[in-house]
Design goal:
Layout: E1 4-9, E2 14-19, E3 26-30, H1 41-47, E4 52-57, H2 73-87, E5 92-97, H3 99-110, E6 115-121, H4 130-141, H5 150-157, H6 161-169, E7 172-174, E8 177-179, H7 184-195, H8 200-204, E9 210-215, H9 222-231, E10 236-240, H10 247-250, H11 252-265
Parallel strand pairs: 3-4, 3-5, 5-6, 6-9, 9-10
Antiparallel strand pairs: 1-2, 2-4, 7-8
Helix pairs in contact: 2-3, 4-7, 5-6
Length: 267
């Protein structure tokens, strides 16, 4: 088989996922808010020697249903379960970044039989203030799409070149320019569900071996990490120097060393 795209029909959405299609153990990747399945490109290539890599394009993003009515935490978790069902697998390692990490954590809490290892990249418990929800919503709504070309987007995005290039790769080319593959209002509703409370009880129910990867200048509060470690002292926490929220894009070599060692050691 060759690498390509799979699709799952949910009651209210289509969920697409990228599949390297090797006859190997499966690992699942979940992107963050406003991300896309192939943003994990370097991770996919590094893992596929030992793994069949499944990267889910989550509801509201990319080729999956752009404006689903249900953007609850349960909907996102059930989408991943549906992908695992479609692949015919039971328990797999699940890796998520940011909002994808939160989804992975809830999957491990609500369906512990589906997750045998959990990796959370810049992911916490949720429960940010309504101010943060509004800040993210305003930022998404501020994108001056369409962008005339790639250079105009890179100038707008204004962060490290490697991260900006990856975000640019996720834009959709139309006749009038480049567009994000998401709807700002839909994603604002989705992240609001992450922020509605701290999912501390769910975290305490996770039993899978867990690696929490932080950026030195990331956005997960120290207070939350301390709470997470107090409830589950068995977790491994690693901080990647010089990075912010997009650790997997900003320091791919350091990230991949952490990931591959954890996945190999936890087998």
């Amino acid at each position: 088989m060759t690498a390509g795209w799979g699709r799952v029909e949910r009651p209210d959405a289509e969920i697409w996922y990228y599949d390297t299609a090797e006859d190997k153990p499966i690992v699942v990747l979940l992107h963050g808010l406003a991300g896309y399945a192939r943003e994990w490109g370097a991770t996919i290539e590094a893992l596929r020697e030992e793994w069949c890599v499944i990267s889910v394009e989550q509801r509201g993003h990319g080729s999956s249903t752009r404006r689903p009515a249900d953007v609850s935490r349960r909907a996102y978790v059930d989408d991943v379960r549906a992908v695992l069902d479609d692949l015919g697998v039971d328990q797999v390692p699940v890796v998520g970044q940011s909002m994808g990490a939160h989804t992975a954590m809830l999957l491990a809490a609500w369906a512990p039989d589906r997750v045998d290892r959990l990796v959370m990249v810049e992911g916490g418990l949720g429960g940010d203030s309504p101010t943060m929800t509004r800040t993210i919503a305003d930022w998404l709504a501020s994108w001056p799409a369409p962008f005339a070309d790639r250079e105009e987007f890179l100038a707008f995005f204004g962060t490290g070149r490697m991260v900006a290039e990856t975000w640019a790769d996720g834009l959709e080319e139309r006749a009038d320019g480049l567009w994000p593959q998401w709807d700002a209002a839909t994603l604002a509703r989705a992240v609001g569900h992450v922020h509605e409370r701290e999912f501390l009880e769910e975290w305490s129910r996770v039993s899978a071996p867990t690696l929490l990867v932080r950026g030195e200048h990331g956005s997960v509060p120290d207070r939350q990490v301390e709470s997470m470690c107090a409830l589950r002292p068995d977790i491994e926490v690693a901080t990647v120097a010089g990075t912010g929220h997009d650790v997997h894009l900003e320091a791919p070599e350091a990230w991949l060393r952490l990931l591959t060692r954890f996945l190999t050691h936890a087998r």
